[in-house]
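Render this sequence as a predicted structure.
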Amino acid sequence: MTLYLIILVGITGHVGFNGSRIAMSLYALELGANQFTIGVLVALYAIFPMLLAIYVGKLVDRFGTLLPVILGVIGMTIALVLPPLIPGIPVLYASITLLGLAHLLFMIPIEACIGGIGGPDRSAANYALLSMGWSVANFFGPVIAGFSIDNIGHREAFWVLASFSVIPILILAFKPELLPKASPRTKKDQHGSVLELLRIPPLRTFIIIGATINSGQNLFQFYFPIYGHSLGLSASAIGSIIGVVAAAAFVVRGLIPFLMKSMTEATILTYAIFIAAFSFALLPFVSNPYALGAIAFVLGLGVGCGNPLSMSMVYVLSPPGRTAESLGILRGTYNLAQLVVPIAFGSVGTAFGYAVVFLSNASLLAAGGLLMRKMHLPGAERSSK
């Protein structure tokens, strides 16, 4: 029951954040922003997470999970109500920046405590379940945002997204013991450096692998609203197609425990990168919304493997007492890519068009997949933490 309640907290807290991506992009387009401006706005999601993820992970390891999660939910709520209260593009910069910081405070504690529930042998299954929860939120967030925009307006959609924050606040108010306290730490754990963690080759490699796949998903979430808007698709259609990625991710994450019976984590992730690359290569040649939905489903099968397997391996490979710190490095790497990708590809899209953006990303993913095939990365043994 504890596992499922924590996942419920994660889902309901994540809906508003993930829906904000499409709401912010389409609201900015409504206000007259160009592709580069939207790229900068989306990149701001990653500023504080990139700079502070490791520090937040250390704090969670030391002080526990409850307070950061509560602060994160409150911060996301405030950030989501700023655009309707203070209309205009300038406030979007502040709102998105706060959303990124608050979401970091919310995510790392939940991801850190999930892995050990039921024992270390359950880490991969637990992270698969948590990632299925993220997929549920990733589906409903854009869909709710899109339909809200079409039916009640851009600014009003933010109130709808913010309302989901009430649920995790109520759950934690009635069950504050749901989130575990900090694990005991040795003197060595307390003074270890980030470089010590990055010197662990398998840990470093899985962090890079996870960031590579995550960057593809981030590009789709950032750039598809712009591409769909150029094709004349409605906000509902754009949100639904983005939601299809999450639906596919939900499906493949449910299959991970079965896939791992015959393949290692590295093998699964290699196939996932090639599937994602193939999907991006198809996108610029398709304008039919149903065909785009089919491509989005295939893309979701690829990127859906990245998050749970990366988190599971980072959890398993991190030293005792430094799990959240290691996950902070993973999250920081994700956000470094999230910072660079929108600005870089927003500039490319403005200069050269949509096709170059999608094909360039397909090439980068394919190159990453080819490099991974040359690596020999067996699945790590599950050990007690």
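Summary. Confidence is low (pLDDT under 50) at residues 184-190, 380-384. The first helix runs from residue 2 to 30.
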